[in-house]
């Protein structure tokens, strides 16, 4: 039966939720049976591929990519570009003025749907770019909070990429290309939809009913796992308790019965009542925490991920951006290095255009990262946390030293060039078998134990021609073998 939605509900200001989440879980023995409760679900081992991968790409792409309009300067803190519809409903003066000037007062958000055509979308090209950039897993928004699905969802009739706009299964196309390139495929799925009538009815009923969960969310969540078998499910938009969403029941199905049950990993956005990270009661697969989750000692005890965006203000594409909103290479590599040193994965977000093109500035940043990883990847991929995460007096973009480790070596990643070609590290203990080298450099490094201390090593970098530098702008990675 149809539901009449009170007009005032379309004006409800929902609490903003981070844009990226659908679940991330783990791998384990397929014979194991997990019960629909958090102690049982949290006992499932995380699939090893996730920790080994270290670097993923996040893609926010949907109808919001058509208006592609976000905050215009640092002082204006409106909703990001992918929240365009919500900004219109909330009467954000900046967005409303832009919308009425460009599209007119009678142009609704739904009218953008047919304009999202993806006519330049080439999934093989996307996958090739990601692979060249050193990306190991891909997370695509299958559905954001606007409710438009990038696959042929029956629960989103005439508001999906098959019935309008692209007229194709975008999720299926990219999944096929990503997997063919040897990368892991993941899918973001927003649990709630801002203006779905059934969700708004459940909210009006103070969550005592659950028609939206039963008739929309659950069918969609099961369908994308049955159809595409993603290795990662990034959950988001968990406005409502975990019990209302029936998250434990869904994850028990995912871990026990889904076709991707052995490889799939999920994040931790499964209910707004999730206790804080560090409380000992936080639930989920790996911990994605809040958007732009920063490295800290709180994150050391459980696998985690930092999702950050190359455009500081937006996750979806914003064509009105100024250059200063985009992270430069030094900022990008700092996020990657500091995150991996503290045991996390870096999930780097881009926003393609409505026609399916990845903007050149995003391509440039990704390829810069890929060139650095081609030389220094052994200090990132499949590494573990060392006993110390940094050797940093001055911390931040372009400053400090971070550590990663393997069973054979410790890697000291120097974000700036050592003053006077001398790098002093306070944390490593040298031994009779200690050796030091710089990744990508054929010249030998000089070294000696730090004087006046029981620990530490002083590394002397020889004179190098510019062409002998493995990376002209850093970071520079020193491989320390035979240290404790």
Report the C-alpha radius of gyration, rounded. 24 Å
Uncertain residue segments: 1-29
- Helix count equals 12
Q: How does the overall form come out from the CA principal axes? A: globular
Topology (SSEs and partners):
Elements: H1 38-42, H2 48-53, E1 55-59, H3 84-89, H4 93-102, H5 123-132, E2 137-143, H6 170-180, E3 184-190, H7 197-204, H8 211-228, E4 232-236, H9 242-245, H10 247-256, E5 265-266, E6 304-309, H11 329-341, E7 344-350, H12 360-376, E8 401-405, E9 409-414, E10 422-425, E11 430-438, E12 446-449, E13 457-460, E14 476-483
Parallel strand pairs: 1-2, 1-7, 2-3, 3-4, 4-5, 6-7
Antiparallel strand pairs: 8-9, 9-14, 10-13, 11-14, 12-13
Helix pairs in contact: 5-6, 5-12
Structure description:
The protein is built from 12 helices and 14 strands. The model is unreliable at 1-29 (pLDDT under 50). With 484 residues, the protein is α/β, with parallel strands linked by helices. The strands form 3 sheets. The protein has a 7-stranded parallel beta sheet. A 4-stranded antiparallel beta sheet has the order 8-9-14-11. The protein has a 3-stranded antiparallel beta sheet with strand order 10-13-12, with no helix packed on it. A hairpin with a 3-residue loop joins β8 and β9 (409-414). The chain is globular.
């Amino acid at each position: 039966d149809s539901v009449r939605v009170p007009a005032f509900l379309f004006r409800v200001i929902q609490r903003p939720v981070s844009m990226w989440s659908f679940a991330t879980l783990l791998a384990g023995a397929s014979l194991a049976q997990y019960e629909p409760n958090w102690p049982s679900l949290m006992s499932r081992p995380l699939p090893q591929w996730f920790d080994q991968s270290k670097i993923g790409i996040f893609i926010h792409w949907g109808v919001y990519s058509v208006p592609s309009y976000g905050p215009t300067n640092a002082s204006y803190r409106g909703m990001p570009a992918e929240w365009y519809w919500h900004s219109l409903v909330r009467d954000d003066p900046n967005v409303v003025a832009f919308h009425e000037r460009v599209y007119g007062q009678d142009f609704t958000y739904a009218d953008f749907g047919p304009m999202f055509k993806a006519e330049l979308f080439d999934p093989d090209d996307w996958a090739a770019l990601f692979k060249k950039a050193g990306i190991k897993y891909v997370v695509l928004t299958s559905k954001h909070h606007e409710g438009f699905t990038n696959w042929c969802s029956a629960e989103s009739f005439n508001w999906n990429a098959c019935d309008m706009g692209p007229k194709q299964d975008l999720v299926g196309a990219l999944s096929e290309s990503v997997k063919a390139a040897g990368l892991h495929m993941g899918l973001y799925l927003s649990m709630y939809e801002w203006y779905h009538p059934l969700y708004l009815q459940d909210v009006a009923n103070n969550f005592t009913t659950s028609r939206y969960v039963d008739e929309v969310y659950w069918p969609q969540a099961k369908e994308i796992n049955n159809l595409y078998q993603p290795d990662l499910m990034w959950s988001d938009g968990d406005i409502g308790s975990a019990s209302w969403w029936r998250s434990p029941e869904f994850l028990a199905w995912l871990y026990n019965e889904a076709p991707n049950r052995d490889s799939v990993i999920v994040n931790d956005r499964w209910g707004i009542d999730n206790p804080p990270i560090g409380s000992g009661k936080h639930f989920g697969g790996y911990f994605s925490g809040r958007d732009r989750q920063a490295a800290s000692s709180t994150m050391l005890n459980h696998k985690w991920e930092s999702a950050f965006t190359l455009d500081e203000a937006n996750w979806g594409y914003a064509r009105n951006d100024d250059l200063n909103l985009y992270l430069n290479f030094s900022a990008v590599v700092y996020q990657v290095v500091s995150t991996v040193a503290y045991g996390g994965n870096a999930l780097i977000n881009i926003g393609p255009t409505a026609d399916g093109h990845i903007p050149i500035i995003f391509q440039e940043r990704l390829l810069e990262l890929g060139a650095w990883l081609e030389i220094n990847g052994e200090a990132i991929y499949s590494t573990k946390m060392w006993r110390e995460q940094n050797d940093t007096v001055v911390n931040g973009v372009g400053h400090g030293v971070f550590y990663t480790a393997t069973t054979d070596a410790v890697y000291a990643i120097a974000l700036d060039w050592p003053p006077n070609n001398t790098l002093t590290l306070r944390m490593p203990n040298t031994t009779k078998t200690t050796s030091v080298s710089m990744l990508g450099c054929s010249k030998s490094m000089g070294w000696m134990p730090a004087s006046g201390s029981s620990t530490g090593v002083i590394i002397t970098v020889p004179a190098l021609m510019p062409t002998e530098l493995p990376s002209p702008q850093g970071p520079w990675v020193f491989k320390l073998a035979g240290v404790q």
